[in-house]
Write a structure and sequence with these properties.
- The protein has 255 residues and is an alpha/beta fold.
- The strands form 2 sheets. The protein has a 5-stranded parallel beta sheet with strand order 4-3-1-2-9, with helices on both faces. Strands 6-5-7-8 form a 4-stranded parallel beta sheet.
- Helix 1 packs across helix 10, helix 2 packs across helix 3 and helix 4 packs parallel to helix 6.
- The radius of gyration is 18 Å and the shape is globular.
- The relative contact order is 0.21.
Length: 255
């Protein structure tokens, strides 16, 4: 267990999507030091086998542990479903994962449906199936293969994205959709485009806030929460391309 308050928090994702989680972390815990690892060279995770995802997650955790992190945030629903339990059994530091925000969505339902947008792997994991069993009344699992790649390419708007979403949501035209759950951290960057397909009464939510609240609780429990001093963000990536780091900083609004 790393008991150094000044040690960094490690956050990782298959690419740039987890920066949406990092942004929430910096907003809520501005004094912390963060190392963000984007595994862009191996993205996407959502269409890979569980064994492939687990192999990458273990390699990234080793990379971040070598930098003496005090907590690890899996800023990826797919990686959480595949590897969170293995990491918790392996590591002595807190491991904070993601899950589609189906529980809060169920409280927003008023007789209509809930669309849970996620990668095919996330929707197939036992963790998600258990969540559906508890809170899935009226919920429809909506696999979105290829959607996260729009974010990886920086295509947060445009005709190709609009056409993809139009096809995705076409079967639900005329339905009462009470809530849309963004079950992939990449999709948070597409919130406004997604929202444009639904009336104002439809809630569009994600699990980032709940994840960071849990991180704060665990840091407080371990006595390692930084409450003063300047926060720092360091970006690392498996893709040796300066443009990738520029993209990360741009999404973080550092540039």
């Amino acid at each position: 267990m790393n008991e150094d308050k000044d040690a960094p928090v490690g956050i990782f994702d298959s690419g740039v999507g987890g920066i949406s989680v990092l942004r929430e972390a910096v907003r809520v815990l501005p004094h912390e030091r963060y190392i963000y690892y984007g595994d862009t060279a191996y993205a996407p995770y959502g269409t890979k086998s569980a064994d492939e995802v687990l192999t990458r997650v273990l390699a990234i955790s080793d990379f971040l542990l070598a930098r003496r992190i005090k907590a690890l945030v899996i800023a990826c629903n797919t990686a959480t479903g595949v590897a969170a339990q293995a990491l918790r059994e392996r590591l002595q530091i807190p491991v904070i994962g993601m899950e589609p925000a189906l529980k809060p969505a169920s409280e927003m339902r008023h007789g209509g449906s809930i669309l849970v947008m996620a990668t095919p792997v996330t929707l197939s994991q036992p963790k998600f199936l258990r969540l559906m069993g508890q809170y899935g009344e009226g919920a429809i699992a909506l696999p979105c293969p290829g959607l996260m790649e729009f974010v990886e390419r920086g295509a947060l708007h445009g005709s190709a994205l609009h056409a993809y979403l139009e096809d995705l949501f076409a079967p639900f035209r005329g339905w009462q959709i009470d809530c849309v759950v963004l079950g992939c951290t990449h999709y948070v960057f597409l919130r406004e485009e997604i929202r444009s397909f639904f009336p104002d009464t439809t809630q569009v939510i994600d699990g980032n806030g709940g994840t960071i609240r849990q991180l704060k609780r665990r840091l407080e429990e371990n006595g390692v929460l930084r409450t003063s001093g300047e926060g720092v963000v360091v970006f690392e990536t498996s893709l040796s391309d300066p443009q990738n780091l520029q993209k990360m900083r741009a999404l973080m609004r550092l540039e």
